[in-house]
Amino acid sequence: MRKIIMDVDTGSDDAIAILAAIQSDELDLIGITTVAGNKRLEYTTENTLRVLELAGVKIPVYSGCREPLVCNLLPNRHGDYDGMTGVGEEVGEDGEKLEYHTDELPLPPSHGRAEEEHAVFYLVNTLLHSDEPITLVLSGPMTNLAMALRIDARITEHIEEIVFMGGGFKEFNSTAASEFNIWNDPEAAQIVLTCGVPITMVPLDATHKANFTLEDAGELRGWKKPAADFFATIIEKRVAAYNAFQPQELADSAPIHDALALAYLIEPEVLENVRLMRVDVDISGGFADGQTICDTRTFPDRTPNVHVALGANRGKFTALMKQLINQY
């Protein structure tokens, strides 16, 4: 089994990724670190604990960074903008506000709590003392790992691969040039992307090609299982939000971004058109702030450092996720 640590900002799609990782025979989820991103840190940590209780497992959770490294220090850089282009105060048919992520997942409050050790120190200590390489799955801003790399770069010697959901090649959602996870902490992303270990990037260009539909939600509801019902609820709420704010090419559908990055470790064929490129992050604070700059030239100025997925196989992805959730 491949040992993994998940770094999450749970979040609806992170929740499905966690549930899938737990049920995979190929993965050994040894720890979860949380970061502020989709929601504030207290929510992303509580939501992660709720998901683990739904799954009926005990996996240590370490609460991490509440703020990006530096981008919030310049008051005019992001201003009051939260990275959610086009999102308004619309209300759905159920009378609730349309949101990609709610503060609290629709699950009972957790009875557990996060470990005392901070996520950054957990990453440093665990990686430095691991007898075998560990794969890191990042599904939020990369602040925790960037901090760990700055504390002790020797941790790279123990990282087998970094797989992250984030960035865009031609697809963006926070600004005209950036995706939310990268835009939220561009400096952290640049530190991680240039750390020298194998990296696979699962950008919006891939996740938008592997959406779940309302029909999928209906199938899940038919199983009459708590985890499947939860997944169906996530799909339905995300479809409502995407229909309102970011309509997808596939009607009545929504991406479950983070689960696709996790699925790649179980079944690599869920990603398609994967190309090795030079990828850097714009940290200028200008129009392209937070952009993942993918150099497609045959002879780039700098050494290629990231495998970028430009497509995905929706059929394989949805089948895999259903298979794993059905095991609960």
UniProtKB/TrEMBL annotation:
This is Inosine/uridine-preferring nucleoside hydrolase domain-containing protein. GO terms for molecular function: purine nucleosidase activity; uridine nucleosidase activity. Pfam families: IU_nuc_hydro. The keyword Transcription does not apply. The lineage of its organism: Bacteria, Bacillati, Bacillota, Clostridia, Lachnospirales. The keyword Hydrolase applies. InterPro entries: I/U_nuclsd_hydro_CS, Inosine/uridine_hydrolase_dom, IUNH, Ribo_hydro-like. GO terms for biological process: purine nucleoside catabolic process. GO terms for cellular component: cytosol. Residues 4-318 form the Inosine/uridine-preferring nucleoside hydrolase domain. Keywords: Glycosidase, Hydrolase.
